[in-house]
Amino acid sequence: MASSNGGQAAAEPRRPRALVLRTLIGEGNETWLRAGAGVTAQSSPEREIEETCEKLRSVAPHLRYVTG
């Protein structure tokens, strides 16, 4: 898992935040690579999709299956 500080909320300025940007999940013989987005009111949906794909492309080529 890779995470980033998600910033501070105005209502709770002292409470830390985190946003998980990339997650690798495995169960049995299956593995999933997921990427998240930090969507805000100023976000462009098209750019968020592209950014999510960029996150996946930055990690996927470096993954290797290793046994035991």
- The computed structural class is alpha+beta
Report helical residue fraction. Answer: 10-25%
Beta-strand residue fraction: 25-35%
Distance between the first and last residues' Cα: 21 Å
Along the chain, the helix and strand elements come as EEEH
What coarse outline follows from CA principal-axis ratios? flat
Largest sheet: 3 strands, antiparallel
Number of strands: 3
Which key phrases capture this entry?
68 residues, alpha+beta, three-stranded antiparallel sheet, 3 strands, disordered N terminus
Structure description:
This protein is α+β, with helices and mostly antiparallel strands and 68 residues long. The chain is built from one helix and three strands; from the N terminus they run E-E-E-H. The chain has one helix spanning 45-59; strands spanning 2-5, 18-27, 30-35. A three-stranded antiparallel β-sheet has the order 1-2-3. The longest helix is centred in the C-terminal third of the chain and has 15 residues, at 45-59.
What is the element layout, followed by pairings?
Layout: E1 2-5, E2 18-27, E3 30-35, H1 45-59
Antiparallel strand pairs: 1-2, 2-3
What would you say about this model in short?
The protein is α+β, with helices and mostly antiparallel strands and 68 residues long. 22% of the residues lie in helices and 29% in strands.
